[in-house]
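To assess whether the prediction recovers the assembly geometry, we first specified each molecular entity separately, as shown.
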Amino acid sequence: MGLEYVRISPGFERYMPKDYVDLVNYGPFGRQVDVQQLGQFKELVEEHPMCAGCFMAYFIRIFYAALPNPEDTIVIGTAGCARLALSQAAVPFVYGNYGDTNAVASGLKRALTIRFPDKVKDVVVIAGDGGLIDIGFGMTMHSWFRREKFTTIMVDNEVYGNTGGQESGMSPKGVQLKMAPKGKQFDKINAVELAKVAGCVYVAKLAPTNPKRIARTIRRAILAARHFGPTFIHAYTSCNIEYSIPTDKVLEDARKREKQDFAFYEWMTDEVREYFEEIEKQSQEVKV
Amino acid sequence: MYYVAEVNESECAKYNCKQCVLFCPEPNTLMYHSTKHTAWVNYSRCKGCAICVYVCSDLLKRNCIQMVMMTAGD
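The predicted structure of the complete assembly is given in tokenized form:
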């Protein structure tokens, strides 16, 4: 998109919707906001139709606050719950067909690199467990094999949430769902190890219990994707409807799962680690 | 009738913690007033999930947020 497209032409301020004027004046465009400042600036994502207490919506809220360069970012999503909020944000959103998000992102990233050789354009895929590991499995894996330079974020709610609760490849073994009455017969797919084997340079797994850590992980994944290759984040974002979690217990559930099988995990190649150490050293020097 | 969160502003201003704002899943809903140092709720956007009540009462034991019923005119 670019910063000049965000700004309102002189004389048109009074005709623009209030939310848009607020976004330009108090939003994160053109300046670096910190996730700790949430609630004190106008957020990129607007009101959306996701369920009350949905932690996928929470993850997406933190995601938009953590973007290092929102005016030069394109988000790609697919069918599933996540697109309900992703499409309500002031960041261009491309709706891929079910399963082809990473193929679309590959083409888009290559085209943007050719069209804007002197600028950095970030491409981020956010899709659910169905879109990336079940139906889009082939295209996801092949984008990693080709070492395409964009970030893939899986918001894993462990179920097909908005089609009535079918089991997905990421549902835990033995879990009983509305459309899996016998209980799931197979293990949960280990997406993190798959990503490492397939050639991702930065892989992380987290449960959304610490906003600062989520923001740092997302920022790192995007920065690593700019220079080195594919990056992958596996985030646990519970479905409180299909898993019957009372809305006020959603955070408690995330904390419980973090202790069980979603402990924070981060893996990166040596060159990425050196790059981050260099960046952190520079930012400390700036502070001093 | 809506079920929304309400912040007790005089209680909340004592702590300056902001944790509820960081854990609300809805954007631009639970906001933070930087001069009054208190959280406040945009009632028309609140979906009433009560995660902020869990954070404030169960995790931090500060009891500054209650869920209240509201009619459209309020």
